[in-house]
Amino acid sequence: MKKQKSIMGMPVKIEVIDADVTDEDIQEVFAYFHYIDKKFSTFREDSEISKINIGELRILQSSSEMQKILALCEKTKQETNGYFDINIEGNLDPSGIVKGYAIYEGAEILRKKGFANFYVEIAGDIQVFGKNSKGKKWQVGIQNPFNLKEIVKVIKVSNAGIATSGNYQRGRHIQNPKVNQWADEIGSITVIGPNIYEADRFATAAFAMGEKGIKFIEKLKGFEGYMVKKNRQAVYTSGLEIYF
Amino acid sequence: MASVIGVFGLLVFLRQSKGNDQPIVVGKNALSIPQSTSIPTPNSNSSMMTQPIQMPTMGIYKNGTFAGNVQDAFYGSVQVQITVSNGKITDVTFLQSPNDNRTSIFVNSQAMPLLKQEAITAQSAQVDIVSGASATSQAFQASLADALSKAK
Asked: What number is the ipTM of this complex?
């Protein structure tokens, strides 16, 4: 069963191969994403994060989930030597963590129901489990950042998270916090990791690092990456071939 | 002397000891710093290569394993443990972190990365899913439009 819906202004796709899946199972995940959007969207004036940003709510008085997300952001900042930073022009924007976190938790809803073969995707960031409808590993195409109709690489994955970070995302929304400039050295970087939460946060940080980002991914055990540079050359990590 | 190092002091120390633009890679629960102070660079003309982390040599730290103070990292407690061998920090472990997730991400301490390169070419579109950042561009516009409509 395959369902698609627009949530948080983004296309959300869920496909579950297991035969006993029902529409309600998938709707439960969609509902969870609505809940996350209401809480963390910086585009909503009434979201909890917006209340923090306008000074209506103090972080220490915010919900435990908000504090958890902010803690994960702080932790990621430390782990990436400051390249992941949610503090943008005086406002907190944790969306670099929230999307991966939401996909991960959404997939966990299906896993706890006993489903083993499915994917959950929000706007190009994906958590896959098990096999596709043909009983094979999920085939994931990496989009050409310079020609969005084109796929430049196909990887085959089973239990993994795949996230791509690029400048065309949200209209150049990723900054290099080190120099307080928009990161624009590369076209995109795709990260494959043990789950989408981990893949997404490190893809965001690696993109902010520019060309050095792929080396950062190379050093992370359990992660692989594929970087498309502006000169149409791709640089990829030494272990990526296991997914070819 | 420096038998106990709080996490912030440690991070400051690492930054100072590594130059100004090296990403410090801290594992989710642990950080493993490459033990060799002079790793040969297999491909020295590659712009991807950077210098290995230079750690202070003999005598600066006592050998052994040391836990730092529990620090209030604002979002939760953080406590690190360091291991010193031959006067050099060889491992850093988080005993406490704001979210103690069990997924371990250790720095690959093998020699320098062997990145590969290829020219991008169009592939068959016979795939189950596409990973890219483009969809969020539409999302951005949709969300912005939504926000603007609410702002009216």
From this structure: 0.90
